[in-house]
Write a structure and sequence with these properties.
125 residues, mainly alpha, two-stranded antiparallel sheet, 4 strands, 54% helix, WH_DNA-bd_sf, Molybdate_resp_trans_reg, WH-like_DNA-bd_sf
Length: 125
């Protein structure tokens, strides 16, 4: 099962995480991985997110190259058609990111409320 992203709210922390020198993971890559898991296709995921296919492919390739094992596996077309799927590592990555995002948002409630109030203040004329 593909983890579901948190419900959108008025204000939300969506972190970018740098793992060593070669891997960065943020909301864009996680949303893309989630869509690949749902659609079983990089091109369908890219279309759904409004991202050019080449950009989506490069983002996935950067993750596949950064980790010791791929996060997405692809199959070329043919009789059964092509496709893509999240590997166990890809599923674990989405799950871990979602847990981090949830925890950050829970722990930062007070600060997020202050930021929300600041955004709602009327601007002086």
């Amino acid at each position: 099962m593909i983890p579901v992203s948190p419900q959108p709210s008025a204000i939300l922390v969506r972190p970018r995480v740098y793992i060593g020198e070669g891997i960065s993971v943020g909301p864009g890559k996680i949303d893309l991985l989630r869509k690949v898991g749902e659609t079983r296709s990089i091109s369908a995921a890219a279309r759904a997110l409004g991202v050019p296919y080449k950009r989506a492919w490069l983002l996935i390739d950067s993750l596949n190259q950064g980790f010791d094992t791929p996060v997405v596996e692809t199959a070329t077309g043919g009789k059964g058609g092509g496709g893509a799927r999240l590997t166990e590592l890809g599923l674990q990555l989405v799950t871990a990111y979602d847990a981090l995002e949830k925890r950050l948002n829970l722990e930062a409630k007070e600060e997020l409320a202050v930021l929300q109030r600041l955004a709602e203040r009327p601007t002086p004329e």
